[in-house]
Give the backbone structure.
Amino acid sequence: MLLIFPPLAKACEPPAGIPQLAGFLRKNGKRCMAWDANLEGQLDLLDREQHPADTWSKRAWKNVQHNLSNLRHPTLYENNARYQRAVRDTNRALSQSCSGSEVNITLADYQDTSLSPHQSKDLLRAADEYRKNIFFPFFQRHLPELLSQIDDQWIGISLNYLSQALPAFALAGYLKKEHPDFRLIAGGGLITSWLSSPSWKNPFSELFDHLIAGPGELPLLKILRQNPSPKHRAPDFKDLPLSNYLAPGLILPYSASTGCYWNRCSFCPEKAEGNQYIKLSSDQVMDDLRLLCDTLTPRLVHFLDNAVAPSLMKRMIQQPIGTEWYGFARVSSELSNPVFCKELRKSGCIMLKLGIESGSQAVLDAMDKGIKLQVVEQTLAALKDAGIASYVYLLFGTPAETIHEARQTLDFTVRNAHGIDFLNLAVFNLPHNSEETSSLQIRDYSNGDLCLYSDFYHPKGWDRKAVRRFLASEFKTHPIIRPILQRDPPFFTSNHAPFMSYSKNQQKGNRS
């Protein structure tokens, strides 16, 4: 079986899904091969000869291989100005590779002015007109050889992000037309979201033989008619070009759980889609990580969990994995404890991503976040004191918020700025399946039959336009907040942020 991760997503670390499936299938007696077409496809675009006219594009193309090399070296991340220029020039070169077409791409996104990933008819058109896709020459050159190396007719496509949808369907259209003997399976986060909709009616039955929602291991065994006596195995990354990713060393993605152990926040997509919380035992996680860290020697482990469980943190304090790590976490009593945070830093924790959402306790209570602002402030201070960077996520425009609560969030952020290393600001989207939609007046508009969100009339008049105006005119321009926002790595954001904080903390430690 061939497992494919299609373009386009950030190419700074290996995908998690196809190595997870590869390890599981091999442990259960099934041969397979994993292919990161995202990384290799982007590198292919950056290797094509171009003759741009403007000065910036000429510089970007001239230095593209040098910049790619620098992005794989840690010294670049010690100088923010050099880092920013290397990333922006690389992005310029990548975007210019499709100049003259209807496609706009960045290091983190893929958009087509004539096709929408929210419309099933447009995705089917992308499959039908696969030769127009900018990645088609790359697919055409590499896939025949890969297909010749697999001993059955099954191909799995891992579709996780909207930015992958159009290239993935072009890939599927190419395979269906030019290699019709192969059968196609699609799974991943985006497929799961589509299938969770109560109104889902499969428009892709002529293209894909199977669509899989949620974890794909057991459904794949059933489809492949293997004996369903599953045995766990750590992810297997052996097929992937681990030294080619755009990071200063291997970032190893790992999931200790799926779903969210809190699973109560209002309007949360995980809750709306009914995703169950399933976790591996701490013993299994530690066995996996020891094996992977010993054999692959990663620079950093990236936990992909919606929130790393406090019990796992305690286990890693007791038995450090010997490698720096980061991931999402919920604010908790443990993280508000300075002693616990210092022990967590000794365990290798370099950064935690925190979904704080609001600096208004009333808004947090309305969302059922289950956190208190006093504990949040204690957590930020404890993490800072321990040398663990914080990447804070704030959400504006929820139904309980007005400009008054938004300004409370502004005040909270300013008051705690010393403990915030990076900020992510988002405008609220209402998930289609959310139970809370019944309490809101839904706006009658259509953004596509596959759209995951609904528009609504804000019950307090705090609409998206007003939210964006507040963010642009008040929040982002505040002299204390602006420098935090400027620290955020362009395009790679939280994926590169640990290396920025790593350099800073190392320099601080060397001076002391």
Remarks:
- The longest strand covers residues 349-357.
- The chain has 20 helices and 19 strands.
